[in-house]
UniProtKB/TrEMBL annotation, chains A, B:
Coiled coil: none annotated. Pfam families: Peptidase_M28. Residues 1-16 form the signal peptide. GO terms for molecular function: carboxypeptidase activity; metal ion binding; metallodipeptidase activity. It is found in: Endoplasmic reticulum; Golgi apparatus; Lysosome; Secreted. GO terms for biological process: proteolysis. Residues 247-427 form the Peptidase M28 domain. One of its GO terms (cellular component) is lysosome. Keywords: Carboxypeptidase, Endoplasmic reticulum, Glycoprotein, Golgi apparatus, Hydrolase, Lysosome, Metal-binding, Metalloprotease, Protease, Secreted, Signal, Zinc, Zymogen. Homodimer. The monomeric form is inactive while the homodimer is active. This is Carboxypeptidase Q.
Amino acid sequence: MTKKQTLACFSSWVLAAGLWAQAPSPTPIPDFAALAGSSNLAYERLSYLCDRIGPRPAWSPAYARAASWAAEIMKQDGLENVRLQPVEVPVWERGSARLLMLQPTQRELPVLALGGSVGTPGVEAPVVVVRSLDEVGPQVQGAIVLYAFPMSKPQDYGAGSRIRSQGASRAAAFGAKAMLLRSLATASLATPHTGMLHYEEGKPQIPAAAISQEDADWIARLVSSGVIPVLRLELGCKTGGKTLAHNVIGEIPGEKRPEEIVLLGAHLDSWDVGQGAHDDGAGSVHVLEAMRLLKLAGVRPSRTVRAVLFANEEFGIDGGKAYAREFGAQKHIAAIESDMGGFLPAAWSINAPPQLMGWLWPLLATTSLSARPGWGGADISPLASQSVPLIGLAPDPTHYFDYHHTNADTLDKVNPEHLQAGALALARLAWVLANAPEVK
Amino acid sequence: MTKKQTLACFSSWVLAAGLWAQAPSPTPIPDFAALAGSSNLAYERLSYLCDRIGPRPAWSPAYARAASWAAEIMKQDGLENVRLQPVEVPVWERGSARLLMLQPTQRELPVLALGGSVGTPGVEAPVVVVRSLDEVGPQVQGAIVLYAFPMSKPQDYGAGSRIRSQGASRAAAFGAKAMLLRSLATASLATPHTGMLHYEEGKPQIPAAAISQEDADWIARLVSSGVIPVLRLELGCKTGGKTLAHNVIGEIPGEKRPEEIVLLGAHLDSWDVGQGAHDDGAGSVHVLEAMRLLKLAGVRPSRTVRAVLFANEEFGIDGGKAYAREFGAQKHIAAIESDMGGFLPAAWSINAPPQLMGWLWPLLATTSLSARPGWGGADISPLASQSVPLIGLAPDPTHYFDYHHTNADTLDKVNPEHLQAGALALARLAWVLANAPEVK
């Protein structure tokens, strides 16, 4: 889940499914829960992905292993046309990081470079604290700028991630020497959260890193009381070149309208810290398990259901863009993404052309989850220009940003039953859409 | 709060104050809440201690600043006989720390050296996982031992801290190369928790560090599935020599029995990470604020109330031992300590000779807090040999071990009203004990 998710992702109206008339599906929905059986293959697979493959930025050897592993699973489960789609991705290496307070006391503070940051052997400067992009001005000349944006709830992520993305260039334009970000989080135990930044062309590129909410608030309190801390930031980051990663694609070809596609997607890459358990290992195994269950149903759907595990959502959405370039002209009747964690499913988050809602609405209702207008998903977002309805699986968001992009995004944070419920929801919706009457 | 706290500290029976007959105090208890006024001086002082002085191991310049600051406050508040008692303390410097997984994947893991650990330029070895001291045997020869003790609730801390203290020597006796500990915590966001270890004489001294619960559980899962991780631990720790720190002492001399002492204590030192907000900045300002309120009451108590802010609880209880050596022969009728955090007061934790309970019982009841047998406090524990009743202020323990000994033990974790409630509780109990009828 990346920066483009906004307030709409986790708020606005929610319609209880119970309010809708239950529209009959032309083909009865199989009992996917019964097909899943007593084991929890989604969780077993997530365990392997987290514990044995681990964090997997798109440019890493771990990502290549993850892609091979996922393709092998798709084949084992009987999917067809299993293939790896090449995706060119940028390379970025985190290296070591150190943040020292030099004044008024000497301390080392937990820190994580922001993804894409340039390195620095060491930059020392006093701190200027701001809370938004708009507050940046000539006062940051020669300073380390701390964006102390007060994220406290999931809905704040959209505004916060804009600061993470644009804050370095904004500050650099006014002569700042480095950028620090109060971590975008809903809970902290001195936990820094990474995430991607974007350098604007033509602006100086300054090093950028996230610090814990505790330390950001401490520095802000010092400044409020008239004490200006002096910090030293050392980052071993290296940006350079491109490499090849791969989207992993597999299908259950449709019986009657094989050229019409229902896409089930998630991103297989993760940040290079933690295990990428909720972001987006959970989504990846949701998709694998939903496809397995659809296949197990033993009845071909009318339309083709296509699973796509995308490369490099975290550092440029390159897999999503490559997919749209190569396959965007095909007839996608819907694209469904799971990239909001492995918590208990709560709703569908819908980004669809209004004229398609009359068709989509009763179909969503058959899945027993509520729906709301909102974000579909980063990887499927390039399909929006083809007027494809984008549908995000939106689980309970309460704790997602406790773990997101940190060393704490690990297997132990995932409840196996909640994870499986997500896979079942995807299977049901994919089934209903793949067998729905003609799009009106 | 240090390793000697055991299960009894946070469990066993609790008597609701409402069950007791309200024993009349010979001198009415002043309205300390009214005396405190609308400001929250305890919180203001804790803010200064955390934000401006910061973490303060007894051997650090920050501790010396904290001691001067506390003595100055005692004088400002009108305490008498304010003095610094010299305490010899060992010196230990954390230096840098790095833990790398080399196999089956390459990762850097969050780590904190255990207090007192020897350094190492780098030790590499496969991991052997155990869950208790008893499981250590010849199988750890040449390995890095991970004690994956499954702490999940405050009551587990006693057993866990014995492992932290004794685990290195136990493992070294069987030829282990280093010791790792699953952090002693009730919550984790990839958060390592430090704390003191003890090397047994005559055993090899091996480096020792704490890792996050997430990583410990991951390593344990790998081992369970037949994969033996290889780790590399680098610690820049340095142990060496002694230095002088000071207990900070101030008094309100008693009117009628000045030679009888009610001690109010906390430890002023903290670990060298975070801000030492709950452990034990909260206790320190509890004591300062209680003394200020007792003084503001304008009526001298019958007995002397003595505040003692102890040096070096965390790394050897040297302040408590020095106090007992120099003043233990004086007549202490009770010693009260606050070293279980700044949360909402819940109970008194009583470690007293049974024959004194008939006297103590109705006095405790007047404070409107329940009481239970348990731990009094580390710093006052050396007074137990003089049969002094030891009384610990026991706040709500739910979140104490979320923050304890980590970078997350910071001011933002302290609720100002809960903090002040602790100071009021101490003032009331000190008043009641100082004015109570003769000890029977």
